[in-house]
Amino acid sequence: MIAYAHDVSQSDQEILMRGGLWAYILVGARHMLTGYDHLLFLVGVIFYLDSWKDIVRFITAFTIGHCITLIGATYAGIKVDEHLIDAVIALSVLYKGFENLGGFKKLGTSSPNLLWMVFLFGLIHGLGLSTRLQSFEMLPGQFLAKILCFNIGVEVGQIAALIPIVFIITKWKKYSSYKYFYSIVNWFLVAAGIGLFILQMYGYFHSH
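^ that's the sequence the OP posted. Answer follows.
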């Protein structure tokens, strides 16, 4: 069986069936903390930024983007094929690694406005999170509250994941080995993006 980021586990389903709104916060946080595609993209974004002010600004843009689609798409019942949306998320990881390595400059062109691209990818990542939430069997009642609590959990998980990521990257910048660390990690993002894209497209064609 192919493993997917944010796969809907039976244990998460049982938590949601037994628990109340707090259960949605817990599962939302767990999904972000185990969502390696989201985290890889955020790693790529953090690498590109030099100040805490920029980190807050760009992460806020990403957060606003995924909140819009997570809440809106789930509430409206808009569903996207999980393989296709995860394939696009994989491309966002590839894109960030490619940009960080100066890929656009090597092509003789300038990269698109990063803030708007981060917001756009936030919208796409939110659709992926909405797809996961809609995969659960949600008991009737408090539908909007459950969506909002899941979203709160996602934000808590994102903050928890970003703290060590930002700490490691900012601290490593002080050492001469940083340029090698930077290169290795961003080449890994490129390879991971390609690999995850192929994996999701394989899953798509073998499920239709």
